[in-house]
Design goal:
By secondary structure, this protein is of the alpha+beta class. It is built from seven helices and nine strands, in the order ααααβββαβββββαβα. The chain starts with a helix and ends with a helix.
Length: 279
């Protein structure tokens, strides 16, 4: 290929479009008549119409658009996956820590290992928060004993954990039997419809929403309440003397703290009044 072929092929596009000078066009025309190779390239350029160019450009644009759409699609999928994971974590956290878990507990009943005829009397004990304030009532009337027996037999209890709080009101029942043995029930009230009924003899500890503490006042209003020593309370045998001392000391400490706090508050209030007076 000669040097002239290089020059002609460089300006062939201008020649095809009619954009070169007359002298250049005449030179290209003479060369094409003499050079078969350059003429073949010229014919190919003539057959490559503007529609072909537009088609190629359109295909290129479409391919680039499809590539961008695929990239956007991958980003959307990634974002959707991350959002789904975040929502799952939030849902799990909410279910575990924020929402109350409602579990269907099967109701249970007390199965006394004795009949009501075997009960000679029932000792009821009650105290509000502090065992040292405990009182005692003795139930001897057959009708009252049967009423207590039937009330406990008819209770619908649940085998679930009770949320305990300090200073619970405790009402206990000791069924003294004719064979010299006894059967204790201890009820602790931690709030409205939130109580626990347990028995060492029965080997159970159940949740109950029943107001068992009301039995103390409503069973027989003629029963006399007398003070009782902490050591006589049902379940006290499972509490050591050290525990009793600690409970008592804790109660006194709380009372002393409350008194000190009230005194400090009064002093601050009095001091503020004096300050405003002098101002």
């Amino acid at each position: 290929m000669s040097k002239q072929c290089d020059i002609v092929r460089d300006i062939l596009p201008l020649y095809v479009d009619g954009a070169c000078s007359e002298a250049s066009a005449e030179m290209v025309k003479e060369h094409l008549n003499a050079c078969a190779d350059c003429n073949a390239i010229y014919q190919k350029l003539l057959s490559h119409t503007s529609e072909d160019v537009l088609h190629e450009e359109s295909e290129s644009v479409i391919m680039r658009h499809e590539a961008k759409e695929k990239q956007r699609g991958r980003k959307k999928i990634t974002i959707a996956v991350l959002v789904s994971i975040a929502l799952c974590i939030i849902a799990i956290f909410t279910a575990l820590f924020l929402l109350p878990i409602n579990i269907a507990y099967e109701p249970v009943k007390i199965d006394f290992p004795f009949e009501v005829e075997d009960v000679e009397n029932v000792e009821m004990y009650h105290y509000d928060g502090v065992p040292e304030s405990a009182e005692k009532k003795v139930v001897v009337a057959e009708n009252d004993i049967k009423t207590l027996y039937d009330k406990f037999k008819g209770l619908s209890l649940k085998d679930k954990t009770t949320e305990e709080t300090a200073g619970a009101d405790v009402t206990s029942f000791r069924f003294n039997l004719s064979d010299g043995t006894s059967y204790d029930l201890i009820y602790a009230c931690y709030g409205v419809k939130n109580g626990e009924l347990k028995s060492a003899a029965g080997g159970f500890k159940y949740f109950t929403s029943a107001d068992i503490g009301s039995y103390w006042n409503n069973l027989n209003k003629e029963l006399e309440a007398t003070p009782v020593n902490e050591s006589e309370l049902p379940g006290s045998e499972s509490i050591s003397q050290n525990d009793i001392v600690l409970i008592t000391a804790k109660s006194k400490l709380v009372k002393a703290y409350e008194d000190d706090f009230e005194k400090s508050r009064n002093l601050i209030f009095t001091g503020n009044r004096r300050f405003y007076k002098y101002e």
